[in-house]
Amino acid sequence: MGTSETSVFAPDYSQDFHCIADRCRHSCCIGWEIDIDDVSLERYRQVPGRLGKKLRRCIYDPETGNDPEAVAHFILSKDERCPFLNEKNLCELILSLGEDAICDICTEHPRFYNTLTTRTEMGFGLCCEEAARMLLTWKTPIRLVETGTMSSEEEITEADFDELEILAIREKIFRILQDRTKDLRTRFDEIRDLVELPEQAVLPDLSFWSETLAELERLDPAWNDEIERLKDTVLDEAVLQAFEAFMCEAGRMTEYENLLWYLLYRHLLEAKDDGDIRAQVIWAVLAVKIIGALGAWRYKENGDFTLEDQIDLVRMFSSEIEYSDENVECLIEAIRDREYIL
Ligand code: SF4
Where are the domains of the chain? Predict the structure, then answer.
């Protein structure tokens, strides 16, 4: 099979993405295991001098290590930092060897790619605070733009029926979602009608979802506090409405519009696996409503809700839930168990 070129599309808001490196408060070089691809590993094996010695000491190399099943990776320090992240939170490998010395995962993060039958869609994952900032501060309706081509080992084929159907529904949802002549509640109701959800699927039962989230795997203890807050009785309809009024007044409802856009852009095509488009739509709407409720809680407590608060919530939700296939699967199962009633 030969290689073929496919067009790559990306959202317009993400065109100027740059890692903010030492200004990042939740660096992806802390707390995540970083695997090393074969080409980078070979290069690291050849680096001379002190840096070379450190590389050989601080990476797990399956050729010399005692677990042949394990893939090559950086050995994190006790506080879970990449050993090459210096005290100023800058990458020692970039400083010494240049940008192209970093391994594929570090080069690509936080990009994601969805390979469709006729094109590739890419974007920037929200576990990165800078990616979240770009999404949340974008003020015009998000559009996809063609950014170039990418080689693929796979033959270009006709888009299959499921893919075309899902893309058509996604397009319809995006049209409703971005119709700013209507308020966001009305748009969410119209999306609910489009995928034929029951009328009562409007407000989530927050304490049920708090219990469900508490059963999932968690990374950061700060997320436990957020989960607990969903049970808090201050989160009644009056508080949610006051918060909505505050966000409308501040011209910030686009943050929720963009968030739902991102979740559907990135995940709706996963319905190809089981044909359950409604479950994917509900999980995305549920995610936005949970993040909205957590925002309302902070607003009620602090009398304010800043953009930094929102970035923090979105980043945390993404890292804890969106980036864990297992956690998303559990949420979708819980949605199905409740017969699509949020
Ligand atoms: S999380 Fe994003 S901004 Fe922060 S270090 Fe990683 S890529 Fe850079």
Answer: 4-18+116-152, 29-107, 161-337
